[in-house]
Amino acid sequence: MSWRNLLSKNLKELRVHYCQTSPASSGVREFISKNYVSLKEANPNFPILIREASGVEARFFARYDFGKEEKVVLNNLPAKDVESELEKLVNKSV
């Protein structure tokens, strides 16, 4: 089974923070624009919260069972590396 299908099984929530104009967030913006629809199709009831704010650090917040959270900083990462960081978060709880 693909890690994309495990998203809603292993995580309770995914929050994505990034700046809409910063070059450091360009990989996150590209990842979201190319992958958001497919992630939601594979996990229709899973909350993916996207927060754009000027000047913020690009990062994922993954919430697991029992309120445990993990933060990953994504500044200056290309979209492919952003995807691999999300895959690590999903597979971490397995």
Secondary-structure map:
Elements: H1 3-10, E1 13-18, H2 26-42, E2 48-52, E3 59-63, E4 69-73, H3 79-92
Helix pairs in contact: 1-3, 2-3
Overall description:
With 94 residues, the chain is an alpha+beta fold. It has a single domain (3-91), classed as Glutaredoxin, CATH 3.40.30. 41% of the residues lie in helices and 22% in strands. It is built from three helices and four strands, in the order αβαβββα. It has helices at residues 3-10, 26-42, 79-92; strands at 13-18, 48-52, 59-63, 69-73. It has a four-stranded mixed beta sheet with strand order 2-1-3-4, covered by helices on one side. α2 packs across α3 (79-92). The longest helix has 17 residues, at 26-42.
Fill in the CATH topology: Glutaredoxin
Structural class: alpha+beta
pLDDT averaged over residues: 94
Question: Could you name the ranges where pLDDT drops below 50 across 5 or more consecutive residues?
Answer: none
Q: How many DSSP helices?
A: 3
Write down the CATH class.
Alpha Beta
Q: Tell me how many strands there are.
A: 4
Q: How many strands, what sense, and barrel or not for the largest sheet?
A: 4 strands, mixed
Strand adjacency order, main sheet: 2-1-3-4
Shape, per Cα inertia axes: globular
Question: In percent terms, what proportion of residues is strand?
Answer: 15-25%
Let me know the CATH homologous superfamily.
Glutaredoxin
Number of domains: 1
Q: Alpha-carbon distance between the termini?
A: 12 Å
Strand-and-helix sequence, N→C? HEHEEEH
Query: Measured on Cα atoms, how large is the radius of gyration?
Result: 12 Å
> What is the annotated CATH architecture?
3-Layer(aba) Sandwich
The share of residues in helices is 40-55%
